[in-house]
Known about the structure:
The complex is a heterodimer. By secondary structure, chain A is of the alpha/beta class. Chain A folds into 3 domains: about 5-165, P-loop containing nucleotide triphosphate hydrolases (Rossmann fold, 3-Layer(aba) Sandwich), CATH 3.40.50.300; about 190-275, Helix Hairpins; about 295-680, no CATH class. Chain A has 31 helices and 12 strands. Chain A has a 7-stranded mixed β-sheet with strand order 2-3-4-1-5-6-8, sandwiched between helices. A two-stranded antiparallel ribbon of chain A has the order 7-9. The mean pLDDT of chain A is about 85. By secondary structure, chain B is of the alpha+beta class. Chain B has one domain (about 5-75): SH3 type barrels. Chain B has a 5-stranded antiparallel β-sheet with strand order 4-3-2-1-5. In chain B, strand 2 and strand 3 form a beta hairpin. Chain B starts with 10 loop residues before the first strand and ends with a strand. At the A-B interface, helix 3, helix 10, helix 11, helix 15 and helix 16 of A face helix 1, strand 2, strand 4 and helix 2 of B. Strand 10 of chain A pairs antiparallel with strand 4 (about 55-60) of chain B.
Amino acid sequence: MSKEELKIGFIGNPNCGKTTLFNAYTGANLKVANWPGVTVEKKEGAMKYHNHVFKLVDLPGLYSLTSYTMEETVSRNFIMSDDVDVIIDVADASALERNLYLTLQLIELGKPVVLALNMMDIVEKRGLEIDMHRLPEMLGIPVIPVSARKKKGLDILMHAASHHMEQSSPDRIIHQHGENTSKSRHKHDHHKEYTMVYSDEIEDKIDMITEVLEKKYPEIKNFRWHAIKLMEMDPEIMEKYPVDLPHVIMRSYEKDIIKQKYDFIEEIIEEVVVNKKKQENRTEKADRILTGRYTGIPIFFGIMALVFFLTFTVGEWLKGYFEIGLDWFSGFFENLLVSMNTNEILVSLIIDGIISGVGGILTFLPNIFILFLALAFLEDSGYMARVAYVMDGIMGKLGLSGKAFIPMILGFGCTVPAIMASRALEDKRDRMRVIMITPFMSCSARLPVYVLFSQIFFGDKAMLAAYSMYILGILVAIASALVMKLFQKKKSVNPLLIELPDYKSPSAYTIAIYVWEKIKDYITKAGTTIFLASIVMWALLNFGPSGLTENMGESFGAIVGKALVPVFKPVGLGYWQIIVALISGIAAKEVVVSSCSVLFGVGNVTSDVGMESMLSILTGMGFGAVNAYSLMVFCLLYIPCAATIGTIKRETGSVKKTLGAIAFQLLVAWTASLIIYNIGRLL
Amino acid sequence: MTLFDGETGKTYIVENTDGLETGIGRRLEALGLTGKTPLRLLNRKKNGAVIFTVRGTRLAVGRLIAEKIEVAEAGNI
């Protein structure tokens, strides 16, 4: 190894276990950011290998390297750049045929490539064998069997990567094509030089284009690849390196090039995959029910109901213990502070502001943990892709493909990643619509609001009241999508196209990392946004125009809140405290809960005692069950949190659209609350 | 016939996909749906979306795509 630092790019098809492998090397400490200028995710991690530092970059999951999507272009340019020393191509050995297509494209790029064959255990289970001598011979690159889940072969793969980078030309290529290559009238014997050799017609054209490129653009590193791309009429390469060869490039030869690559892959498969005995595929059996014509939709709704049932019941049970702990901590701390003769204002800030605010939010950790655990399970098992198929019919009526439903489900967890997941949609307008409706899917941050107010006002029907918020959120999202469809000029639907991977039992490690990331976010949010919001709230409520005030009703917060009372009166929320809580909720929706505890001076608001005193205060104000329900509806639908606003801005790249989304959501929230409050009052 | 008219459980040979929009056509080809390739129809929905396997890959596509994949019956290979 000549270099101290090696940059390795991980690339592979979606669902090939690439991320699991990447995690196995880097653990949970990775940096997630966007590629400069575009909204394509970039994950980076580092590892030590002997005395060297390896920088690993996880590229988006791809099927090919054309430039039809942003992901493909970004990945291709990154691999072609000098930034990357070696490419590790992760392939799902149980779907080798399709995975090799990307491999052939990568080899053609001319960078050192190592093929990591993942999921060999599944291959064995299916009674197949892969000839590990023949495969590298035919491809001309090292092939290493690995198991990302069992962490096998990891060292060997890195070893191969660090050695292989010094060789820029392929090892040895030994393959015979079906047709007699000796008869080829071609002037070079390309079979010795290149892994992928095309028909004479195409090879002749490649040679002619190469000749021109060599003269016109001597700076190009890989003439052959550029020649092939020009024959495919790749828009990016045509713009960068235009050539005037109308008699050579008479049309796009992309179809032929793809076909010939697959023909070669067929040869490879025939030679290296042995002992093909047919086995009943368990996934197909499961899919007959899970995606069945009559069973698919009921099962999906059943699964979602179970997810929320677990979130509320198991989460609630665990939450009880958190509250006992918080109560004890708060009491202990107050005694400690008082015994130290701490300034009264400071005690108030710490106990009423910080501990009751931040602590109240932390007690919801169990609910959120279970919700994300369930979502991780659905994603990692392979079920999420089925949801796109199952929901395709319903989504089609909204003018969207079933794929648009995936971001919506993720929205139950957190709106920020859900909006980012809309990147999977090909059409820009479809994306915009999904971005607009996803915030209506009730995220986990809104859960504390429902749980608190439904427990205070709805007794044994609390769970039902909270559930109804999720249903209402979905209904509003659907209605909004329908309205937007009416205003759309182009009526055609972008059809569904999605791969359905084999079902697998989820990897505990992958799930642990996924859930940990979310929990970490939640705790960080409690420690930063909510912490600051609690302090600001406390200050706004304890200071007024005349300085420190005993009476909250004269504070700055109250002045703002009171000014807005007329706006909120029609929807049953014309109480300045509630309005202040709602405004503070823009920082993060959980803050509505922590603010209430500060506003009403109720410490540990989620405990039984806390809720009882809340109930008596609110009832005394004339705020009853109908008002509480209206508040829940408003919280569900109004402006998403600051982080979501930031994400919408980033993903749409437009301030106008972002402001539009905010105005739209405020309007929807106000209208829905108005309707529900007035119906509720009549009942 | 097209994939849309296919019967669940049967194997077909891909004849022609030229009717598809270029972007979608190339993506399907990159996934292995090239001419003369056998595919097996696994599942279909009322709205016309289908699930099929081609070269060991399982794909779900909407009606608008299924209607434009021309296939011929191949019996049970």
